[in-house]
Design goal:
Layout (H helix, E strand, L loop, with lengths): L7 E6 L2 H11 L3 E8 L4 E7 L5 E6 L18 E5 L2 H10 L8 E3 L4 E7 L5 E6 L17 E6 L4 H12 L5 E7 L5 H8 L4 E3 L11 H13 L4 E4 L8 H6 L4 E5 L11 H8 L3 E8 L9 E8 L6 H24 L3 E4 L2 E4 L8
Parallel strand pairs: 1-4, 5-8, 9-10, 9-12, 10-11, 12-13
Antiparallel strand pairs: 2-3, 3-4, 6-7, 7-8, 13-14, 14-15, 16-17
Helix pairs in contact: 3-8
Length: about 350
């Protein structure tokens, strides 16, 4: 048996509304899906946990209380890795959560502490060296690690890698992956001394097959990637991939979404006769170019434009806008509420 990772941890709560507030507002986990099953009078809340796993929160009528003290057999506690334990303790205490005194793991020489959820499930915060999160402000440039996926020449990947090297993006490119063996994006990566990997896509034309998806996920996990950046990647990501990196996959699209999704969007816009088009950067979900929009920039469609000239104008915008957005994500300057991506500074700041 080859296990690829923890998919989810399921928790039963006594007061659904109270526990939902705790896990979303106190711990800051992102809601993936929510449902009420009338036949069982049961709520179910799917939450994106750090590292790509999920927490599934359930309510069932009449569930007995958890025996936490003394500890019962079975699941002992949840543990979350953090980069700044003191800041987390201060934040929790500011929200009225009682936190135990910070202790030291003498074997690993790491500090940790505990607090409890509304039903006394112990939760540990463990200060792990080198741990990172794209939602945290002021990341160590060596901590936020990018995995870039592409199928073409790699001009956007090169712009992002160069911005990382220059310090404009507080992150590093951990691996570049392509589904095309001779793609220019792999040469761009190798020329910069970056890890470059070809993953054969398998039997499907528009997406990875199961073997290829597993190989791609393994490469990203082995590289300890925090944020997956799609840069001209011509395959649709679905299912297990998006569950593994829930809320941590971004894409760039050469049109002003939701208009003109799909392939050759610049040509769609030109053929339709619009006077203005542009570039969109968005989070990736199960649909085709349907995820929450992070940033957009417009470009005019000029009377003499051809498909080639319009595309070239949009690519100039892409090479500046994409690094600015990736930098903001790495600095924790963007949060998502429903379908809205909210910037701390009201939008991308570009040189």
């Amino acid at each position: 048996m080859q296990l690829s990772g923890i998919h989810h941890v399921a928790i039963i709560c006594s007061d659904y509304a109270r526990s939902k507030r705790f896990y979303t507002e106190v711990l800051g986990l992102t809601v993936i899906a929510e449902a009420f099953r009338a036949a069982r009078q049961s709520h179910k809340l799917d939450l994106a946990a750090p590292g790509g796993a999920r927490i599934e929160l359930f309510s069932f009528p009449g569930s007995p209380s958890r025996l936490s003290y003394p500890e019962a057999l079975g699941l002992r506690h949840l543990a979350f890795a953090v980069t700044d334990l003191d800041a987390c303790v201060t934040e929790l205490e500011g929200k009225g959560v009682k936190v135990e005194a910070v202790r030291l793991d003498e074997v690993a020489n790491r500090r940790f502490t505990f607090f409890a959820d509304p039903d006394d499930l112990p939760i540990e915060l463990y200060e792990a060296q080198g741990n990172s999160s794209i939602h945290r402000t002021g990341l160590d440039p060596q901590a936020c690690r990018l995995g870039i996926l592409g199928s073409g020449k790699g001009s956007n990947a090169a712009a992002i890698a160069d911005a990382c090297a220059a310090g404009t993006i507080p992150a590093r490119v951990a691996v570049v992956i392509s589904d095309v063996a001779g793609a220019g994006i792999l040469e761009q990566a190798r020329a910069r001394g970056l890890a470059a990997l070809h993953v054969a896509p398998g039997k499907f034309r528009t997406r990875f097959d199961g073997v290829a998806e597993a190989a791609c996920l393994k490469a990203l996990r082995d590289a300890e990637v925090d944020l997956v950046v799609l840069a001209g990647f011509m395959r649709i990501l679905k299912g297990e991939f998006l569950r593994a990196y829930a809320g941590k996959v971004v894409n760039i699209h050469p049109a002003l979404l939701p208009a003109f999704p799909g392939l050759e969007a610049w040509k769609q816009a030109l053929d339709y006769g619009v006077k203005m088009t542009g570039v969109t950067i968005h989070f990736v979900d199960e649909g085709i170019d349907t995820g929450p929009i992070i940033a957009q920039e417009t470009a005019p469609v000029l009377p003499g434009d051809t498909s080639e000239t319009l595309h070239a104008r949009l690519q100039e915008i892409e090479r500046k806008l994409y690094p600015a957005v990736i930098g903001a994500l790495a600095r924790g300057e963007i949060r998502v509420e429903g379908r809205r991506a909210i910037w701390q500074n009201h939008g991308p700041q570009r040189a």
